[in-house]
Amino acid sequence: MSKGLPKRNEDYSLWYNELVKRADLAENSPVRGCMIIKPYGFSIWEKMQAALDKMFKDTGHTNAYFPIFIPKSYLSKEASHVEGFAKECAVVTHYRLKNAPDGSGVIVDPEAKLEEELIIRPTSETVIWSAYKNWVQSYRDLPILLNQWANVVRWEMRTRIFLRTAEFLWQEGHTAHATAKEAQEETLQMLEVYATFAEQHLALPVIRGVKTPNERFAGAEDTYCIEALMQDGKALQAGTSHFLGQNFAKAFDVKFANKEGKLDYVWGTSWGVSTRLMGALIMAHSDDEGLVLPPKLAPIQVVIVPIFKGEEQLAKISEKVQVVRNELLAKGISVKFDTRDTHSPGYKFADYELKGVPVRIAIGPRDLENGTAEVARRDTKEKKVYALEGLANHIETLLEDIQQNIYNKALAFRQANTTKVDSYAEFKEVLDSKGGFVLAHWDGTSETEEIIKDETKATIRCIPINAQPEEGKCMYSGKPSSRRVVFARAY
Amino acid sequence: MSKGLPKRNEDYSLWYNELVKRADLAENSPVRGCMIIKPYGFSIWEKMQAALDKMFKDTGHTNAYFPIFIPKSYLSKEASHVEGFAKECAVVTHYRLKNAPDGSGVIVDPEAKLEEELIIRPTSETVIWSAYKNWVQSYRDLPILLNQWANVVRWEMRTRIFLRTAEFLWQEGHTAHATAKEAQEETLQMLEVYATFAEQHLALPVIRGVKTPNERFAGAEDTYCIEALMQDGKALQAGTSHFLGQNFAKAFDVKFANKEGKLDYVWGTSWGVSTRLMGALIMAHSDDEGLVLPPKLAPIQVVIVPIFKGEEQLAKISEKVQVVRNELLAKGISVKFDTRDTHSPGYKFADYELKGVPVRIAIGPRDLENGTAEVARRDTKEKKVYALEGLANHIETLLEDIQQNIYNKALAFRQANTTKVDSYAEFKEVLDSKGGFVLAHWDGTSETEEIIKDETKATIRCIPINAQPEEGKCMYSGKPSSRRVVFARAY
């Protein structure tokens, strides 16, 4: 199965596309820029959803659902918001088809034209804040802590499966608060939820930072983000959390009476992660044999492959396997026992490697005699023989080790590919030779940021929130700077 | 809170609308025909989703995700399918907005017109079968057992919150099989899954039946359904399961090589339930005081209301409550302890009645002395005092009793409102006096069915799958009939 998967160091982009396809994660649909998420891919997304949903609920949020359609006039109410999204909107203009008079099929019925065009949500701030106007009268109605799991559409010109698609799945949190401080705390709390999720579930170390004004969400006062490094040295923004200030409250006239009875505009936040995380997961850990999945997100954590000839041998192996399998299931570990006789063990090994199953157990006739099994871990490809007695306990620990090891490996990679530079020449040299995160001084102006972006295709990924103050000079302009920011070429 | 909720027997329709609003389940959005599902309503929907999703997975299905956009040409490939959906399609024609030259806001950019219009999915058969074409070569690729949780859009002219909305949430199963028999078995299996879910979770007895050709899904060979009776005597179709024959396989050229190596078209099914079930749940059980929720779907199963004056008394009550609360939580029962001092116990009682919380526990100073609590059940409004010792065990049993009682009550209602009639005069009389399900003989023709519908607004809800053969004469035409069918006026 894994034969012929392109090598990462030869063509990273082709490797990614082929891996997504061969591991049966997703495929491009005939609808331009849209993807079909196949069952195996979707089951990973479901694990992400479940973990995130629990974290949202543990921090006091509840789910709700708002319409997919946004009246065109709503989008226009927040000036920078419409500026940011107008260029990539799918627009519904009609509500009926009819048979073509010439019998050639169906056509749009020109008589069924909407009075006002509807936009398919690219994000839901406008439709949600228009509802909040009716929900909020006094400080007693605050905070509102909502989340929505939904599909959104942004008509991107250049798409890439999982990373940038016209339609994608995501969650969008939308909260409303009585004070700026509370909204800012919420913004940072959700950033931390995302960072924790990335590190503990995706096994992906991230930099927590704030975007420059140029890179802010359209309509936000501040955009915080988590940034991860992929194996090709490019950065990937894995989640954002926005402090909206009173921008949407003003646009939709959402006021509340505070404890003193004085009217004020409500403070807002929004935050989201999407199926883009699937791309991050794949690109961060996988190798030339296929996916490498952290156990916490693997749909199948353990696969058991019997090595047998004939029914009788399989029956004997199955008897032993059932014991181990039940022990594993009792620990909440997902197990697949692949008894197919239509495929060889070698084929199965390669296929489960391709699919990223963290642990493979093989049991053959000799193991039966010895009361043993061969355990192979996907991340290091290490194989060892263990006694069946106590095997489940060993696997439990092993899964934890694998989760941690995948994280450690990604962290070591990031450390090896994070470079401090002090001159623009060095900056360009590092970008071209190895890429990665480049820490450099910047004068804080949009002009310099734009020039660097134009000349090198590197953007300021973020200003790390835990950055140490350090006096220096902007690598481009030589003007003073008080701390380094993170540059990278990015997805 | 519940003051002023309209009475069911005075204005059922107004009662329903007001209940949806006051119990904070959902509201109409400014976007025509679309609804906002509010957190409390959505948490009930999440419970439905979780239960159904488990049932789907237990029967071998996995989730996937297909694009929301359907190229117009796809919809046209299955003749009766496009016939059924063309009249209610939201059509995307453009992909960009731009600033109006006169500065009046944003307008649709006429230069960003799509080459082919895209339909927002009203259902996904076409986009899914176009993918199946590439997924299926041989019998080894079958069956495909997929489900999708998604939003769909049908541009209905007359909408009603939860029951009929332009956008709604649903799940749609789409399966592909090697034989007609297997597909038919799948169709009936999923009908039974829906019926079991309705009866065991919604506490709603349903009739399992098959639709007449007139009422079939557009593109199906057979449409099976579950039909429930609401308290106003109207029927509600709560779920459908379609045997698609080879219709979509032929439309999208999905062929497979069978075991003998011969090419044949694949056999299909599709099946779905939607947020309409929320409407069914509300209308079947609730009363003039508010929602009545079956415990299995109640977001809060038990609410504990302390009756106290001052912090000290509350602290003493809380101490006792924590013990009971932990015992309940350990049993997997959801509990809310409402310690707010901003609202009176009476206000809280009425509010939780409105919200349909199945069990309310009240604890006051006298209970503290006696080691007791007052337990009120929402369904019968019965109140009793119990010892705190052993209370959790009692509540556990009580929740099961309530679940069963709500079902029994709905079943008794249905029995009392199911009438056998043998003449058309009697038929009309029953429909006008009490409504309900009317069992009558029908000659099997679409003509008779249409006339009865036009004259009485009653439709054939289904031909029950377990109907006993019974020779008789069509109540309208007098022609022979071999069994009774179920008529009703319906939502």
Automatic annotation (TrEMBL), chains A, B:
Primary location recorded for the protein, binned into one broad class: cytoplasm
Gene3D superfamilies: Anticodon-binding domain, Bira Bifunctional Protein, Domain 2, C-terminal domain of ProRS
Signal peptide bounds: none
Domain Aminoacyl-transfer RNA synthetases class-II family profile residue range list: 39-294
Classification via HAMAP family: Pro_tRNA_synth_type3
Protein role: Catalyzes the attachment of proline to tRNA(Pro) in a two-step reaction: proline is first activated by ATP to form Pro-AMP and then transferred to the acceptor end of tRNA(Pro).
Any one GO molecular function term: proline-tRNA ligase activity
Reactions catalysed: tRNA(Pro) + L-proline + ATP = L-prolyl-tRNA(Pro) + AMP + diphosphate
Family of the protein in this entry: Belongs to the class-II aminoacyl-tRNA synthetase family. ProS type 3 subfamily.
Keyword Chloroplast attributed: no
Entry protein name: Proline--tRNA ligase
Annotated keywords: Aminoacyl-tRNA synthetase, ATP-binding, Cytoplasm, Ligase, Nucleotide-binding, Protein biosynthesis
Domain notes: Consists of three domains: the N-terminal catalytic domain, the anticodon-binding domain and the C-terminal extension.
Subunit structure comment from the entry: Homodimer.
EC primary class: ligase
Organism encoding this protein: Rhodocytophaga aerolata
EC number per UniProt: 6.1.1.15
UniProt-annotated location(s): Cytoplasm
